[in-house]
Structures are given as structure tokens and as C-alpha cells.
Write a structure and sequence with these properties.
Layout lengths: L15 E7 L2 E7 L7 E4 L5 E5 L7 E2 L2 E2 L7 E4 L2 E5 L4 E6 L13 E3 L4 E8 L2 H8 L13 E7 L2 E11 L2 E9 L3 H11 L6 E3 L2 H4 L5
Parallel strand pairs: 3-15
Antiparallel strand pairs: 1-2, 3-11, 4-9, 4-10, 5-6, 7-8, 8-9, 11-14, 12-13, 13-14
Length: 209
């Protein structure tokens, strides 16, 4: 019996030095010469769900209710839960054990339909200013939070996780068809700060789980 092979929409030119096959995905854990500066990390293999229901209050995800206000998020045990609008929320499994989700037709697995990338380290807000007009530096806003709008002229979901350990963290998701152009655009925007591709471990180490 052949194992299902899943493909990330991202292709970095950096050389992987440590990989792991997980649920049909070949996950890069570390790249050669990735350093410890500004990183771009492919998380497209991480499970993502779209939740749509007329009463989101009836759902409890990863031990946390769906936030009540649009564009607000909770991050618990490595799972981010964000309210998009009155009837829609998103769920991203980022680290640790996967959440236990109910069997419900309101939940749709969108993992393979989208790019998910993380920017971590210094200068990430400077990079974001170059690719979109969204205000990620507003000191009045608390994190984590969801920002819905275009980046590089592409409709995106942007999750600002704020400070995690010794690094700032921003996540960007968009349709997988834009994956290669989006990551190339991010690397180009971050070139003046020596942005480099990094493996998944550079991201998951930020979670104290």
C-alpha cells in the first residue's frame, strides 16, 4: 500500500540538513547555514481548519472557547483559535499535541489548500511594512491577534503572535496557489536584513509545551 505523498507549495533553494516524514509530508526541520537571525519558516504542513456555524459559542477548541470578538485570538497548548467574523473562525495547530476536535460538519480541514509561513526574529515588522499597508505596530493592540487583508496584493490571513521567547513572530496564510510567489516576495523584502529560510524546529522551540 502506497503512502499518500503531500507537497508543500513552498520551494526554498536552501539545502535541508534534517528532515522528517510526517503524515505524508516531508518536513524540513533544519536548513544548512540558517543562522539565528531573521527567519522565514514553511509551516504549510501544519493542520488548519475552517469553522463556520451560526453559533460559534457551542464550540470548545483545545480547552478554549472561540473568542467572541472578530480578529481576536487565543493561543493555548500550541493551537491558535481566531474569530474571523460572526459565523467563522480559524484553527491552526502550531506545536505540541494536536487538538481534539469534535466530529462536526461545521469543521473543514483546509491544510492542503493553503500556504502557512512564519516570520520570526528581529525586523519582521519592518518586512511587513514593505509588503502591505496593514498596521502591525499599533501599540494599542494586544497579541495574539488576526489581521485580514492583502500582502503583496494577495488576500491573506495574518496572525501577529507578538513576542515569543527571544523573537517576534508573525504568521501569514494564503491560498496555496500563491505559495511560491509569496515566499519569494517575503525573502526579497527581507533581504536587507539577511532573511533566511529555517526549518520547523526554529519555530516550535519557541513554544514552552
Amino acid at each position: 500500500m502506497n503512502m499518500l505523498q503531500r507537497q508543500s507549495p513552498v520551494r526554498f533553494s536552501a539545502r535541508p540538513v534534517k528532515t522528517e516524514v510526517r503524515d505524508g509530508w516531508t518536513v524540513v526541520l533544519e536548513y544548512a547555514a540558517q543562522g539565528d537571525g531573521l527567519h522565514l519558516i514553511d509551516l504549510s504542513h501544519r493542520a488548519k481548519w475552517d469553522l463556520q456555524d451560526g453559533d460559534l459559542s457551542r464550540f470548545d477548541i483545545a480547552g478554549t472557547p472561540i473568542p467572541s470578538a472578530p480578529n481576536t485570538c487565543t493561543l493555548k497548548n500550541g493551537t491558535a483559535v481566531c474569530r474571523r467574523n460572526r459565523t467563522q473562525a480559524l484553527i491552526w495547530h502550531l506545536a505540541g499535541d494536536p487538538p481534539e476536535l469534535p466530529e462536526d460538519p461545521a469543521l473543514t480541514d483546509v491544510t492542503e489548500a493553503s500556504l502557512l509561513a512564519a516570520l520570526t526574529g528581529p525586523n519582521i515588522y519592518d518586512v511587513m511594512e514593505k509588503i502591505c499597508s496593514l498596521d502591525l505596530k499599533d501599540p494599542a493592540k494586544t497579541t495574539p491577534r488576526l489581521i485580514q487583508g492583502p500582502a503583496l496584493h494577495v488576500p491573506c490571513l495574518i496572525m501577529d503572535l507578538g513576542r515569543m521567547g527571544d523573537r517576534d513572530v508573525v504568521l501569514i496564510a494564503c491560498s496555496r496557489g500563491y505559495g511560491r510567489d509569496m515566499t519569494e516576495g517575503l525573502l526579497h523584502a527581507g533581504a536587507e536584513w539577511n532573511m533566511a529560510p529555517a526549518g520547523e524546529t526554529a519555530f516550535t522551540r519557541l513554544f514552552d509545551i
